[in-house]
Write a structure and sequence with these properties.
heterodimer, A: 440 residues, 4-stranded antiparallel sheet, B: 159 residues, 3-stranded antiparallel sheet
């Protein structure tokens, strides 16, 4: 079945690669007026564009949002349970405990006022401000803006811990090659089944279609997404690298690469196990590797961030590393970290949107089993060194050497803290019209 | 069912990695018992790398032990296993790995869920929940925090 690109929101299948991001959270005050507003929003679809637009706008509804829009109960209850419970209700299932507990989240994410997400990305601040002003005008008397946070694409594409980001994304069957998320970075993996990200199509599990809300006009061509505000502690991360270098005698940049699986330049350890080899790997090869030929993790450690979150064809517990994929969207917020001024008091991190067809089988599974546990790869209770919620006594990280002995680093703290979370349904264009037309 | 009820299956305690499954399935008829017995005996007589059950469970790497037992004058078949983590969380992986084995077994069972299980996952999960005897009290493990993959990795390191 061909993908209906004109009915699918663009954010699901493509990275817009625009420098400015604004996330607006709205609370529905007047359901009828919001429904009328929905039909006027210029939502970007996944259709190919002839020329790149000035901005792209996408939309998501939380379960509280659908309730506030007075969706009929039987329609609401056709959504998957984890979506209805929301990020707060499912916190334990993703490892949002301890410092990441929703009790420590910022408002309004602890409340029931997170109704609509508008994700606006643009070519310039001026464009984003202009579109925002139009949206705010349209919301008058209909909805209240309860949160706004901006992100940006760094000029060198390096996220706050200093690594080049945005290299690896799932390539989806049925999407034209040149319109794949990262066409410049092909990989040797099978294309991912479209139903992994878009409802109404077969998922990565053979014969299985993820549960879809009904009726079809509402569910088909929709997706789910986990919105996250992830605060990054750059000072603690850099200090840990110093400490780990002292502990092990290894070079701190080698340790930094071993934690992620890529050098900070973006070059993968799998292709450049030695620092000096980085320059020999051309850009279009940065994703041309697999972990299956490195079963002990001697090049790319089993516990590294990129290997945990995308094991590729390596043998892991379950049905394999190619299922449970997620589409990563998001950009950094907060000014870049300056090591010369480490205690600048600036909060910085990632505004993330993690898109999937089934929150439980993809986002939650990945966070619970691959990020906050280690058994799937034979690593006991070790957690992801970058994203993991480490135990109070400090986490452990194993770096297999070129031969059998491994180096063990201890005392790892939690470098990324969840400051907010929310689950959203990303409706199709048809579904937006459907919701808009429902009687109040 | 409300969302809170449907999601109310308690997660394993943080220190307890493993869980028991005692699945009791009712066989349709003596002829079905004969067919099941022949099939299982054939599988179980094969070397590990040819036995489809072993191959599937090796790939899944979530099951510590598994055995089949006929009960009650060969009118029921028990599948008794110890496995890691939440069955619900791994249901898709489980079916991907061993769904065809269950299709073959369930074809001989009374009250079987709709087949194939690959296309009827929720119904299969409900069937397993309904026919799992669970266990009395808490589940004992000599190594409660260790999963299959970690044990295999430690065993390989020790060699």
């Amino acid at each position: 079945m061909p993908l209906d690109l004109a009915d699918i929101q663009g954010i699901v299948l493509r990275s817009y690669k625009m420098p400015v991001l604004r996330n607006l959270i709205l609370r529905v005050d007047d359901a009828a007026r919001v429904k009328a507003l929905l039909s006027t929003l210029p939502i970007q679809t996944a259709e190919c564009w002839e020329s790149k637009p000035e901005y792209c706008l996408n939309i998501g509804f939380s379960a509280d949002g659908l309730r506030a829009l007075r969706i009929p109960d039987d329609t609401l209850n056709s959504f998957p349970p984890e979506f209805l419970l929301g990020a707060v209700g499912r916190a334990a299932a993703v490892g949002d405990t301890g410092v990441n507990d929703p009790a420590n989240w910022i408002e309004p994410f602890r409340s029931t006022e997170v109704h609509i997400l508008l994700s606006l990305t643009g070519q310039s601040h001026e464009v984003v401000e202009s579109v925002t002003a139009r949206i705010r005008g349209g919301c008058q008397g209909a909805a209240t803006e309860v949160f706004c946070r901006d992100g940006y694409m760094p000029s060198d594409h390096r996220a706050h811990f200093g690594y080049v980001d945005g290299i690896s994304q799932p390539r989806v069957a049925g999407v034209p090659a040149q319109k794949q998320d990262t066409p410049e970075f092909t990989d040797p993996l099978e294309l991912v089944a479209p139903g992994a990200f878009v409802l109404g199509y077969e998922s990565s599990h053979p014969g299985h279609f993820y549960a879809m809300p009904s009726p079809d006009a509402l569910g088909k061509n929709g997706s789910f997404a986990a919105f996250r505000i992830l605060q990054q502690d750059c000072y603690a991360f850099e200090n840990f690298l110093d400490d780990a270098a002292r502990q092990t005698g290894l070079d701190r940049e080698l340790i930094a690469a071993k934690l992620v699986g890529r050098w900070r330049s973006g070059v993968p350890l799998s292709l450049a196990p030695e620092a000096a080899q980085q320059a020999s790997v051309p850009l279009d090869q940065w994703n041309q590797f697999d972990h299956a030929d490195d079963p002990a993790g001697r090049k790319c450690p089993l516990g590294s961030h990129i290997r945990r979150t995308n094991p590729r064809r390596a043998l892991v517990a379950g049905s394999g590393g190619e299922t449970h994929r997620i589409m990563r969207r998001g950009l950094p917020y907060g000014s870049p970290y300056d090591p010369k001024n480490p205690n600048d008091g600036v909060e910085r991190g990632l505004l993330g949107l993690f898109i999937c067809g089934d929150l439980r089988d993809q986002f939650e599974f990945l966070m619970k089993d691959w990020v906050n546990d280690g058994d799937f790869a034979g690593l006991g209770t070790d957690k992801d060194p970058i994203l993991g919620n480490q135990p109070p006594a400090g986490g452990r990280y194993r770096i297999p050497g070129p031969t059998k002995p491994q180096t063990v680093v201890r005392g790892m703290s939690t470098f990324i803290t969840t400051k907010a979370g929310a689950y959203f349904f990303l409706p199709s264009i048809t579904a937006l019209r459907y919701v808009s037309a429902l009687p109040v | 069912m409300s969302p809170s009820e449907s999601m109310s299956t308690p997660a394993p305690a943080p220190t307890m990695k493993q869980n028991p499954l005692t699945l009791i399935m009712t066989i349709k008829s003596p002829a079905d018992f004969a067919a099941l017995s022949a099939m299982l005996n054939k599988f179980l007589s094969l070397p590990r790398d040819k036995n489809p059950i072993d191959v599937a469970l090796d790939k899944l790497a979530k099951v510590h032990f598994a055995r089949f037992v006929f009960l009650e004058n060969n009118t029921k078949l028990a599948v008794i296993t110890s496995y890691d983590d939440s069955f619900e969380d791994y249901i898709n992986d489980f079916i991907d790995a061993i769904g065809d084995i269950f299709n073959a077994l369930l074809a001989h069972m009374a009250d079987a869920p709709p087949l194939p299980v690959q296309k009827n996952r929720a119904a299969f999960l409900d069937y397993v929940r309904k026919n799992d005897l669970r266990c009395l009290g808490t589940f004992y493990s000599a190594y409660p925090t260790l999963g299959v993959k970690t044990i295999l990795a430690q065993a390989a390191d020790a060699e």
